[in-house]
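hey
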């Protein structure tokens, strides 16, 4: 009898725990586990994407109010690697003091964190990338940080629009053959396995063993 063994692309999440929120490196947890950071404009769905990956609805706090995440939030997954929920940019109504601190806070983390292995830059499939999205991409390239792009909220567009928007955003971002682009929805779970594959690759490179 032939048995079909499916390729193991999903990740068994045995534990997902909030560690702490911090603004400055002095308050980060010790740099021990490989880290995956999630970045993008305010309200784009960073916290929702994390919750979908780990299948815990309320792990990272989500909200209809943009600017919900204002500190760097550290989570551990399976005690083997860490997910970092970064505060979003580009929301005008966030108080001036917080907005002024955003750049240095996030840049310091991204630039100096030795255990950072991958940045997942999240874009809303319905919107063209903003100036800030472009700036962040340039910045990641400048510091040679490995990153991938997740186009989220794909459940909000039709199949036709999906293809058009993928193409449009691809053109907007320009040629970058090594950057994976993954279409995703926190609502339907589309793209989740692909994201896990990329995350696994980044972490396995680091630990050298199977997760
Ligand atoms: P900040 O922390 O404020 O920067 O926002 P965030 O990027 O963490 O976004 P969050 O996950 O809080 O989501 C913002 C809103 O978008 C919430 O109302 C979510 O329910 C909604 N949302 C996020 N992802 C999706 C998605 O894939 N599909 C749909 N339909 N809604 C989504
Ligand atoms: Mg958030």
């Amino acid at each position: 009898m032939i048995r079909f063994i499916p390729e193991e692309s999903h990740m068994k999440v045995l534990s997902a725990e909030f560690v702490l929120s911090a603004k400055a490196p002095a308050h980060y947890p010790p740099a021990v586990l490989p880290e995956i950071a999630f970045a993008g404009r305010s309200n784009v769905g960073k916290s929702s994407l994390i919750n979908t990956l780990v299948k815990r609805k309320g792990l990272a706090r989500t909200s209809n109010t943009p600017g919900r995440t204002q500190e760097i939030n550290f989570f551990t997954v399976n005690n083997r690697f860490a997910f970092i929920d970064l505060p979003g940019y580009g929301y005008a109504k966030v108080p001036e003091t917080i907005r002024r601190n955003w750049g240095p806070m996030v840049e310091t983390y991204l630039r100096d964190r030795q255990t950072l292995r991958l940045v997942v830059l999240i874009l809303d499939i319905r919107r063209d990338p903003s100036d800030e999205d472009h700036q962040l991409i340039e910045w990641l390239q400048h510091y040679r940080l490995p990153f991938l792009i997740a186009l989220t909220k794909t459940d909000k567009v039709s199949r036709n629009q999906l293809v058009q928007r993928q193409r449009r955003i691809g053109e907007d971002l320009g040629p970058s053959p090594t950057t994976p682009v993954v279409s995703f929805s926190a609502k339907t779970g589309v793209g989740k396995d692909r994201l896990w594959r990329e995350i696994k690759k980044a972490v396995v490179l680091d630990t050298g063993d199977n997760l």
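Helices lie at 46-54, 96-112, 131-142, 159-173, 192-207. The longest helix spans residues 96-112.
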